[in-house]
């Protein structure tokens, strides 16, 4: 079971009587600060300014890494840091990548994509440590037969309440790393990513605004059938994600357009999705910042639609 770190009296007594009093107090302070940051993180979802939020996210990662150095066994801290890397890489670093790519500045585009890849792989390492903490056979199962891995996940990570967070963020981190890897060899890990995403859907398909459903959709729409893709199924997944979120999470619109609509050359679908994003009102606290990310991209995609469609 995944549990947030707690201050246990027995540990505190040992610290007070041990020779490493300073180190122990530092760890307690790090744990307390990490708990505060983790509790405060959901409030940023409703923040109104994209640039300020980006600066804060980058600074937050540095702070969390420093705290993680002091208290590497704090599960809550580790998870918050892993989430921070994924959010910042997608929302800000990949935004810079796309701007450079559409400006035909391929050197800058490659640099930003590599930055994002390093952040995603750091998140993967953090999430793997949490999965291994719960069961040390995780990586052995993950790189084995996909069907056996699915059975393993049902057995070892089958509690919807306790396991969904770990399974979901492991899938998102790993999928993002594979997608942005510099070498195609990384695709060998995609069956494990799909198994994790499928398991997350089975635990709670609506978790994190149907994020696992959208991940499966993106995987299916990003590759032709000979490489494991399935555009028809990808469409169905995206439509399911939109339905589950009441079409309020506009990142689904962006990913739907960027993968399915463009790859299948469905211009009408692309235009409808993008105009839905740019014409939308504020969808409330839960979606405000993520929809700022989405709107920036929708406006950019509409300006550059001729880059993808005739």
What does it look like?
The protein has one domain: TRAP transporter T-component (Serine Threonine Protein Phosphatase 5, Tetratricopeptide repeat), CATH 1.25.40. α4 (75-102) runs antiparallel to α5 (106-134) and α12 packs antiparallel against α13 (267-278). Residues 1-21 have low confidence and may be disordered. By secondary structure, the protein is mostly helical. The chain contains 14 helices and no strands. It has helices at residues 9-17, 21-40, 50-70, 75-102, 106-134, 138-142, 146-156, 160-179, 190-204, 207-222, 231-244, 250-263, 267-278, 288-303. The chain is globular, with a radius of gyration of 20 Å.
Number of strands: 0
- Summarize the main sheet: none
Low-confidence stretches: 1-21
CATH topology: Serine Threonine Protein Phosphatase 5, Tetratricopeptide repeat
Range of helix content: over 70%
CATH architectural name: Alpha Horseshoe
Q: Radius of gyration, rounded?
A: 20 Å
Helix and strand sequence = HHHHHHHHHHHHHH
Q: What percent strand?
A: under 5%
By DSSP (H or I, 4+ residues per run), the number of helices equals: 14
Shape: globular
How many independent structural domains?
1
């Amino acid at each position: 079971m995944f549990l947030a770190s707690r201050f246990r009296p027995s540990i505190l007594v040992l610290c007070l009587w041990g020779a490493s009093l300073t180190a122990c107090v530092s760890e307690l302070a790090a744990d307390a600060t990490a708990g505060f940051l983790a509790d405060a993180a959901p409030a940023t979802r409703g923040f109104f300014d994209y640039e300020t939020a980006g600066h804060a996210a980058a600074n937050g990662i540095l702070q969390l890494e420093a705290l993680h150095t002091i208290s590497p066994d704090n599960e809550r801290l580790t998870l918050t840091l892993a989430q921070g890397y994924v959010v910042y890489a997608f929302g800000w670093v990949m935004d810079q990548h796309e701007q450079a790519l559409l400006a035909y500045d391929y050197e800058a585009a490659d640099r930003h994509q590599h930055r994002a890849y390093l952040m995603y792989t750091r998140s993967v390492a953090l999430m793997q440590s949490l999965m291994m903490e719960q069961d040390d056979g995780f990586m052995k199962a993950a790189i084995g037969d996909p069907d056996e891995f699915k059975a393993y996940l049902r057995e070892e990570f089958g509690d919807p309440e306790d396991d969904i967070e770990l399974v979901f963020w492991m899938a998102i981190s790993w999928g993002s790393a594979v997608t942005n890897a510099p070498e195609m060899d990384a695709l060998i890990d995609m069956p494990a990513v799909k198994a994790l995403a499928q398991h997350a859907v089975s635990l709670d398909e609506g978790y994190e605004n149907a994020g696992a459903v959208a991940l499966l959709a993106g995987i299916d729409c990003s590759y032709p059938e000979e490489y494991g893709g399935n555009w028809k199924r990808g469409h169905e997944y995206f439509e399911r994600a939109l339905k589950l979120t009441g079409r309020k999470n506009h990142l689904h619109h962006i990913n739907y357009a960027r993968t399915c609509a463009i790859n299948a050359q469905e211009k009408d679908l692309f235009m409808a999705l993008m105009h839905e994003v740019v014409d939308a009102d504020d969808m409330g606290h839960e979606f405000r910042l993520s929809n700022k990310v989405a709107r920036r991209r929708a406006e950019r995609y509409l300006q550059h639609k001729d880059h993808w469609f005739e």
